[in-house]
Design brief:
By secondary structure, the chain is α/β, with parallel strands linked by helices. Helix content is 31%, strand content 18%. The relative contact order is 0.31.
Length: 146
């Protein structure tokens, strides 16, 4: 354990987050997501819900401030305009972390899988709520005064 870091941010996950560059995407996936078959790089955080892990990740990962929607969720199959409770929770967590509302894109299921295949990494969680998947794009950390 390290001082000042969320305990969910273990060595493997911290290494992945630090290795990401501006615009790289990270998938936080629920327990039903085909993480192993989709991921270029896979990290398992089996003891966490996706919402709790998103909170931890956003303590160290800046969101891409140069795109309109730096986050994406999977659209509900057959009801793409429906917003599951977990998606409302993701949206709240993003806004709290950034201090303002954050644009979130809805992506059709198979398009979401394709986007996840191109992502820098997938973090598999124990999240059991349906549609508990989110993609976040990494931003930049500006130098002091810049």
């Amino acid at each position: 354990m390290l001082k000042g870091l969320d305990p969910l941010l273990g060595p493997e996950l911290l290494q992945l987050l630090a290795a990401m560059g501006h615009g790289d995407e990270l998938v936080i996936a629920d327990a039903n997501f085909p993480a192993t078959s989709v991921a270029r790089r896979l990290c398992r955080i089996d003891g966490s819900e996706a919402t709790r892990l998103l909170q931890a990740v956003l303590t160290v990962l800046p969101l891409d401030q140069y795109v309109e929607r730096p986050a994406a969720v999977m659209a509900v199959v057959g009801a793409p305009d429906e917003t599951p409770e977990i998606v409302r929770e993701f949206t709240r967590i993003l806004a709290e972390a950034e201090g303002h509302p954050v644009g979130v894109e809805r992506v059709e299921r198979f398009a979401f899988y394709e986007r996840a295949r191109r992502a820098f990494a997938v973090v598999a969680t124990a999240e059991r709520r349906l549609y508990g998947n989110i993609i976040v794009a990494k931003g930049v950390v500006a130098p002091p005064g810049g």
